[in-house]
Design a protein that fits this description.
With 205 residues, this protein is of the alpha/beta class. The chain has six helices and seven strands.
């Protein structure tokens, strides 16, 4: 496989969730996009058309080592509540990849900002993007990396939808950048070592 080519038989798939377009670029709901964008940038890659309902970027964890190194980063081109269409397209195109090697990266209201958690499987927890993935894949048996955004303070926001679609506050940005860096490293660990190693290293605390 030449540099920058999409591998025909990747070792892993990583789908960051978010909403397309500049209106949503810096919002809390686009935390998943921020992480896969960071991974693509550090690998000097770029997203391109390659799926129905999504864009893809080849990603190599470390070109100088053996093992499961070569994978695909992806982002839906639909809105969040239809993210499962991109997930299904990924699975259709790379049907030899087990779901245990398919990672969804999502924002999570039930974790405070600054925390991240891997889970091997589960329900949607009220997250519309995860709900769409579960519906289209027909199962919740896939790993996910949950990135805390916290909930609005009591009495300050009645509408969680407004909250997740607002940009991070200026005073939150230093933490956001730190989490994106840590989450990008955790995806590399998942890609090379699997979900158990990623959970052991990043779920503490």
């Amino acid at each position: 496989m030449g540099e920058g080519e999409i591998p025909s038989n990747p070792d892993f798939l990583v789908l960051g969730l978010g909403n397309p377009g500049p209106r949503y670029e810096k919002t809390r709901h686009n935390f998943g996009f921020l992480v896969v964008d960071r991974l693509a940038t550090t690998a000097r890659g770029s997203f391109r058309e390659g799926l129905r309902h999504g864009v893809v970027c080849p990603f190599v964890v470390c070109p100088f080592t053996e093992g499961p190194n070569r994978g695909i980063l992806a982002k839906p081109t639909t809105y969040m509540n239809r993210s499962g269409l991109a997930a299904r397209s990924l699975r259709d195109r790379f049907d030899g990849i087990p779901l245990s090697r398919f990672l969804a990266v999502v924002d999570d209201l039930d974790l405070p900002l600054g925390r991240l958690r891997f889970r091997e499987a589960g329900g949607d927890g009220g997250h519309n993007g995860l709900g769409s993935l579960i519906e289209e894949l027909g199962t919740g048996e896939f790993p996910r990396l949950r990135l805390g955004i916290g909930r609005p303070a009591a009495g300050e926001r009645d509408d969680v939808v407004d909250y997740v679609l607002e940009p991070f506050l200026a005073e939150e940005l230093a933490v956001v950048h730190e989490v994106v860096d840590r989450a990008a490293e955790s995806v590399r660990v998942f890609a090379s070592g699997g979900i158990e190693e990623a959970m052991n290293r990043f779920n503490a605390g």
